[in-house]
Write a structure and sequence with these properties.
Elements lengths: L4 E3 L14 E9 L6 E5 L10 E2 L2 E3 L6 H13 L2 E2 L2 E11 L2 E10 L2 E2 L10 E4 L13 H12 L1
Parallel strand pairs: 1-7, 2-8
Antiparallel strand pairs: 2-5, 3-4, 3-10, 6-9, 7-8
The protein binds 8-OXO-2'-deoxyguanosine-5'-triphosphate.
8-OXO-2'-deoxyguanosine-5'-triphosphate binds next to strand 2, strand 5, strand 7 and strand 8.
């Protein structure tokens, strides 16, 4: 595995197989006109429940990243999104699986925000006030900070 993989909660006594399948995930970085971005908590019953992340979910068979993002944001938070700009892709090695995260910027949407899975949500600016943030999500905050510094 190359150096660009973020390894999370590694257990030296229980190495992970090198040939695990990669699970693709579409993630929405929803940015409001005032620059605030939406974070939500992982729902009860999921791995890392209660951790803060950007809304999104796994691609289903045959879906593009954009299609999956549209479906997930409708299902999870009740929003119909407009244009999707694929921004960054990262690979994260968790105990539960190896995921490839496709972070997409979204600046327009319609609908009322509804937490269909019992999540909490917050419109955040940097530095974020919510904690804990999911390990695979922390780099996004760094990318946003780097953009703001430019
Ligand atoms: N949505 C989202 N997932 C993230 C982020 N950062 C990060 O490492 N992940 C990881 C956590 C999970 O391993 C994976 C998302 O899988 P998930 O289980 O939440 O996806 P899903 O909603 O399709 O869930 P399900 O079908 O298993 O119910 O991506 C992020 O910012 N947002």
């Amino acid at each position: 595995m190359n150096a660009q993989v973020l390894v999370v909660d590694a257990d030296p006594g229980d190495p992970r197989p090198a040939d695990r399948p990669i699970v693709d995930v579409a993630v929405g970085v929803l940015i409001a006109p005032d620059g605030a971005f939406l974070l939500t908590t992982r729902p009860p019953g999921k791995v890392y429940a209660g951790y803060w992340e950007f809304p999104g979910g796994k691609l289903e068979a045959g879906e593009t990243v954009e299609q999956a993002l549209r479906r997930e944001l409708q299902e999870e938070i009740g929003l119909t999104i407009g244009a999707v700009h694929i921004w960054k892709v990262s690979l994260v090695d968790y105990p539960h699986g190896l995921v490839r995260l496709h972070f997409c910027k979204v600046r327009d949407w319609t609908g009322d925000l509804q937490m269909h899975e019992g999540q909490q949500f917050g419109w955040q600016h940097l530095p974020v006030s919510c904690t804990p943030v999911l390990a695979g999500t922390i780099p996004v905050l760094e990318w946003l900070a780097a953009e703001q510094a430019n």
